[in-house]
Amino acid sequence: MTIKCIAIDDEPIALEIIKDFCKNVPFLELVKSFNSSYEAFIYLKTNKPDLIFLDIKMPEISGIQIAENTIDLPPVIFTTAHSKYAIDSYNLNAIDYLLKPFDLERFVKAVNKAKKHIEIERQSASDSLQSESIIIKVEYKNVKVYLSEILYIEAMDNYIKIHTSDKYHLTQQSLKSILSLLPTDSFCRVHKSYIVSIARISHFTHTKISIGEVLIPIGRAFSSHFIECMKK
Length: 232
Description:
The protein is 33% helix and 32% strand.
């Protein structure tokens, strides 16, 4: 498995240490690093990494404030030079707490804890969806479609197109009727013509959602509902 992570720390040296340590862990991919907590906070509004290395004491927005105000917060490993913040970090269900200066051995111990946590979460989500399916009519056949395979659903006149990772199913049905068959904690209608699988979202802005290479518009009338879906 690959864990995509970001690092947030106002100290450049601390960021460089995390970058170097990440290179020593095969399953870690550091996709972004921030020395501005404000820029990181804005980034997290539209992107969800698998893991965050988060300094607690920063001048613009503290790590605690970022954790408390980020919708659908990913797993966090707090980093700080101040041991007095340990209780705050555990109150926010942090995976671990790294007290600076920490060495590679302690870093690896923390990320292994994170890896175990993320594996359990991914397996749990996969198991629940893999056991669920819907039956749709495709021409003259009844076809079983597993929810875990659905990327997004697109309305096309009197038909809907159910896109999966390797094919699509075309069925004569309305978007409203197919939505009634789907679990609301896993799927969200984001436009008059689109339903998306929440788990398949790569990133989003206030107007668009990315699922792999596909860009899906967020309708103005659905934007508030989409934010509520992402909070679940």
